[in-house]
Design goal:
The protein is α+β, with helices and mostly antiparallel strands. The chain is about 40% helix and about 25% strand.
Length: about 425
């Protein structure tokens, strides 16, 4: 393979990979200079001229002529007078010799290695371009087509045929994927794995919900409404705190849309995830009250030093505040950044305190409490708010174990 063939075949390959001309020339120069260094130890006194369009390559070596007895005769950029006169008979000491070097002079093996190096450099550059492209897209929604469904992840391809993945823990539990269908998600993170870019998408991230609001609600996209915070239990429930800096705009109404038109599009995308849109306020007590909606709160006591809030409700409002599986109170706590304790308000101003599950550690094994905590149940009342069948279904606990727990908790309030 001569220089013309090598450069033209590389140029075609680079164009297929959408490598721009200046980058292509730089890669060619780097490879040829590497060949020069291997053969001549240094490339400092060489000029490499490449015309990629025509496939032309010219390499020139420059050396200063010194006397045959000079101590500098072994320097890489010096040549003896006798050697110089073999090139041109009238050369004199002190003049510069310009000598053209041909790619054939490097040997067939060096040329083959150069071709392989060129291809590898383009592939490496392609990986780097892909990595940087998606690095800039982290937190943005993209769409991909499903091409393979695996046990640990779903593999998609983007519009350019690049592989992107949605791991199991970044999928909504209710998601079902079919080959050929389009899936939307945010770019969650991009990392290099064994030299290859790994693009990881997420449908469970709060940022995904935030970006969906930006797409469906023009006022959010334009910055007229700000999303202050998003908390989610993917596929189950979410709470979104919004604020408007324009008094004429109702942020909750704008996000929900006429007859729920805007929020419904988001709910469908998230497998019917129940979304509560809440008006943000600096007033902590009012914020907690809104976060616990739809429950109606009688009174609140906030302990800022310990980051806890005691909420008092009428008996018929307790289960609403806790929510199915403890989700409502769990998400409300995360939204406001305070641990919320629920108290049942009884007649004549008396209150009955809900009891933390950790208080039963001498009667209930710790792994059972951990399992209940896992599904958002951290108080006795939150567990008692669910039926035995519901607890068995939502946890990994045996029916007998659940019955024992319910009996212990019921005795506390008898």
């Amino acid at each position: 393979m001569d220089a013309h063939e090598l450069i033209q075949s590389f140029a075609e390959f680079a164009k297929q990979k959408n490598i721009d001309r200046p980058t292509m020339i730089r890669i060619l120069e780097d490879v040829f200079k590497n060949m020069i260094r291997k053969k001549y130890e240094s490339d400092e006194n060489f000029d490499v001229i490449i015309n990629a369009d025509k496939g032309d390559l010219e390499i020139y070596r420059f050396r200063e002529i010194v006397d045959d007895d000079s101590e500098d005769i072994w320097d890489f950029d010096k040549v003896s007078l006798s050697e110089a006169r073999k090139i041109q008979p009238d050369f004199e000491v002190g003049e510069e010799v310009s000598e053209q070097i041909y790619i054939e002079d490097f040997g067939r093996r060096a040329v083959t290695t150069a071709r392989q190096t060129l291809i590898q450099k383009v592939k490496d550059l392609e990986k780097d371009i892909l990595f940087q492209k998606y690095k800039d897209l982290v937190g943005e929604i993209i769409a991909g087509e499903v091409y393979q469904v695996l046990s640990k992840e779903v593999l998609l391809t983007d519009g350019e045929g690049n592989e992107i993945a949605v791991p199991r823990n970044e999928q909504i539990q209710k998601d079902r994927y079919r080959k050929g269908e389009n899936v939307r998600a945010i770019v969650h993170k991009v990392e290099m794995v064994n030299g290859n870019p790994k693009i990881i998408l997420s449908r469970t991230s709060p940022v995904f919900l935030e970006r969906l609001f930006e797409q469906e609600v023009p006022e959010v996209y334009d910055g007229l409404i700000t999303i202050k915070k998003v908390v989610r239990e993917p596929g189950e429930r979410a709470k979104v705190a919004v604020e408007s800096y324009d008094d004429r705009i109702d942020p909750v109404g704008a996000c929900v849309g006429m007859k729920g038109s805007r929020i419904h599009a988001i709910v469908r995308e998230l497998q019917n995830e129940n979304i509560d849109v809440i008006n943000y306020t600096e007033n902590l007590e009012l914020y907690i009250q809104r976060a616990l909606s739809p429950a109606k709160i009688s009174s609140i006591k906030v302990d800022k030093d310990n980051g806890r809030a005691s909420v008092y409700l009428k008996p018929d409002q307790v289960s609403l505040a806790i929510g199915k599986g403890g989700l409502n109170i769990k998400l409300a706590s995360r939204l406001v950044g305070y641990e919320i304790d629920v108290f049942r308000e009884l007649a004549e101003g008396q209150v009955e305190e809900d009891v933390d599950l950790s208080e039963f550690s001498d009667e209930i094994e710790s792994w059972v409490i951990d399992e209940l905590n896992r599904i958002g149940l951290d108080t006795a009342k939150s567990v008692l708010a669910l039926s035995k069948d519901e607890l068995v279904r939502r946890t990994d606990l045996e029916e007998e174990t659940v019955e024992g727990v319910l009996n212990i908790l019921k005795k506390e309030f008898e």
